[in-house]
Amino acid sequence: MTRPIATRLTLASLLDAGLLAFLAVLAYRLQPPVGLVPLLTEQGRLFWVAAIIVCLVGAVVFQVLDPMPQIATTTAAQRGIRYDPVPEWPTGWGLPFTTLAAGALILSAYHSALAGLVVVLFGFIALLVGELARLALYSVEQRVRIFGRVTHTLLLYGLAFVTFAMIYIHKLRSLYSATAVFLVAGVLFLQLTEAADVQLDRRVLYAMVGGLVLAEATWVLNYWPATGWLGGAALLAVFHVVAGLILARIERTLGWRTVVEYGAMACLAVAVIIWGMLRTRGGP
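Request: output the structure for the sequence above.
Response:
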């Protein structure tokens, strides 16, 4: 990776961190309430309008500066890509959008100055590390691609946990919470298959199916007295299973053994989480 690309990504990450800082100040002053439907209620509406604008602007900045198309085309032959190396639709906006959305959701629930500082700091780190890991997926060296895949996947898992927990913490009707989880999960699943040797339309199909599974899980989970973080952990367990099956299908290693392994891990995780729900009896 050349220095100009690293500089460009660093500046874009700093800009988006500045947008999160603006949201943090707004959340501290407005104190948006937890448990009300965003935008449909007057309380906190200004914060949510600003959050949507921040997410869109930040995502557009990274998409405009995205160096992936040139790099993907240059390294396609060395990586053994059979299909089009560059998707016909832009995908560089996905990781910044979900990172900023996660930050906005945290700030909507935690309004303190410390929470704002943590969100801004980790938002900058997540954006920079995530984009560097994404670029590593297109390296000509296999070990760099493996490292990039692991880092990129772990970051997506972290974003999934935070966003699911912060959506669930509002305890909204399934019409709203399941829809929000569907949209976020769909974008995360789409990013999970970044640089995979598969057509974009199939990636979108997998992302939509995965998002629907998470939305259904949210609908079921809304009947349990779970805390926000326990609810996020339960949805993360479902996300892990679906993500594993999608990656196994793309890598052509999907079989009954894979299904049983991921199913067993999911059952164990859900059992532990349900035990935690029964002990806590709900809460924030």
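The chain has ten helices and no strands.
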